[in-house]
Design a protein that fits this description.
The chain is an all-alpha fold. Helices cover 71% and strands 0% of the residues.
């Protein structure tokens, strides 16, 4: 799936077409002792949710994935579904890439980084996206 050592997405996870079903699958996989499948399902949910957003560039797509991964990290840490309401309000108010820049300096973003590492989604972290698309972020500023 990526160079961080994740295996290819399991066929059962790849067949899921709705993010809500990914969460159900992840819960069931965890209960049945398959944490790797659960992590793949969370990652797939992020991809599915991001695919529903209209974006203008690869940088914006990855930023949206980072925001959804940020929500997953918040949910992972608390044990219940969390929504990054403030982040999405900022996206609506100032745009995707400027919101990414602002969110980078928040305390919760730094805390979410550890959770994303545990979830094997560090490539979807706000910092990773900002590093990969630094030129796009500079243009958006």
């Amino acid at each position: 799936m990526d160079s961080k050592g994740l295996r290819e997405m399991h066929e059962l996870v790849a067949r899921i077409k709705q993010p809500e079903l990914c969460y159900i699958f992840a819960k069931n996989a965890t209960e049945r002792g398959q944490p790797e499948l659960a992590l793949q399902a969370y990652r797939h949910a992020v991809d599915l949710r991001a695919a529903d957003h209209e974006v203008q560039s690869e940088a914006e797509l990855m930023a949206v994935k980072a925001f959804y991964a940020y929500e997953e990290a918040l949910s992972w840490q608390s044990g219940k579904r969390k929504r990054a309401t403030g982040t999405w309000q900022m996206v609506n108010r100032i745009g995707i890439l400027p919101a990414l820049q602002k969110r980078l300096s928040s305390k919760s973003a730094k805390a979410a980084q550890d959770a994303l590492k545990q979830m094997k989604m560090e490539d979807y972290s706000l910092q990773a996206v900002a590093t990969a698309f630094a030129a796009d972020l500079m243009q958006a500023a």
